[in-house]
Amino acid sequence: MDRRTFVKGSLLGAGVVAGASKLARLADAGPAAPPATAVLKLCSQEWIVPGRSIKEKAEKIIKWGGCGLEFHGIDVREAERARRELEGTGIGPAALCWGSCGGALISPDPEKRKAARAQFKAVLDAAGALGATGVIWVPCFNNESHKSPQELDKMMADLLPEIGDHAVRAHSRSLLEPLNKGETFYINRLEQAAAFCKRLNHPGVCMMGDFYHMAKEEQSEEEAFVTGGKWVHHVHLATGRSRILPGQEPHSYVSGFRGLKRIGYQDYCSLECGVKPTRRVLDAAGRAKLVAEPDVEIPRAFAFLKRQWEEAAG
Fold first, then answer.
1. The domain that contains 227 carries what CATH number?
2. Most buried among 130, 133, 138, 161, by the most CB within 10 A?
């Protein structure tokens, strides 16, 4: 069965929603409120920004017109240290980018699954300590699981309520990321991630979108974000071909930004990409080469994205 069949049957048939904990029983009451006015909160993964400390990187981001930094999967101690370095800079903590735990979350070995869940919960604790938007994760990359999508659907139905409950206790959320087929055979489009979020209707089980993957998988980036709706709580920015900084090769973000505006998006849009070398220099042997200049190119990317956001009006 495909993802749409799963949406219609497997979660409800297995009684997952009906049997979930009280934290998961948060169905909306009454008519939906109109979406808030969307905001463009530009940020970057921390490793892309030059600097000797988090504080120095934060100062650069705010100078360039951004307002956040995204981190990799860190522990609580590292998160508390990062939070202290961000204090007073005007920069907020975006998501923590964790990954798949080597596919162990959906391993056939119950002990590996148990250990992976403990690791996931520890990163959620770190996200809560930092005050981050959530923890970005994927069930598996290619070659990390030999199970069928149908089998993985059942494992996800078992995993997500427990992870969601812990995320709420940690004052954070899990952020399921769809990837293109070159990186995973499982969950490639935002509608597939949204199916889990909508059926569970759990504040700790949310999702994100990445323009790089969406360019390869989505027919309409606007409609993809609209399908994700209130469950979308983070966005990654990169070009669709070379996965470099926005503006460094042809790629429009207008359609996707229209979708974010339609859902009243309030969270971060973060650079997750390389920086194309553009400056020609001579090496010690006098040979010409190109080097990357993130201090020059990231501000240009932010300016380009702000223009694209304006073009998405209406």
1. 3.20.20.150
2. 133
